[in-house]
Amino acid sequence: MSRSMVLLLFLVLVVGGGLAIGYIALPGEWYASLVKPSFNPPNWLFAPVWTVLYVIIALAGWRVWDRGLASPQQFWWAQLLFNFLWSPSFFGLQQMGLALVVIVLLLISIIGFIKVSWRTERTSAILFLPYLAWVAFATLLNASLYWLNPAG
Question: Is Transmembrane included in the keywords of this UniProt record (predicted)?
Fold first, then answer.
């Protein structure tokens, strides 16, 4: 299989999977009724930010796969799993505490990916820096929502 075909598969998996999960686990009335922190971004911002991040995630995953780097691949697959579990945990099950655990694990796996790929595939590590920043912010947001809405 050609490198460009594999890249396309990574893009379809990550962008397509992320958008599908986002569509299945829409925020809805429950999320609208939550008390939000003052730094909560507007709802319209999430889809474009995640779409860009999903492209970056796919590119980084393809790069470490293309170079046969096992350790970064393990962290890459772990972060994808936790990423895809977060929306169903938070919006689908409406379990902010469970979602907080999932997003902390996501944050740890992103940091792990950056750390293990820094020497062998620095471009992929750098690609993950905006993702790290957004997920760190999202972790703070998840924790704040959990704190402000104790029944969740």
Answer: yes
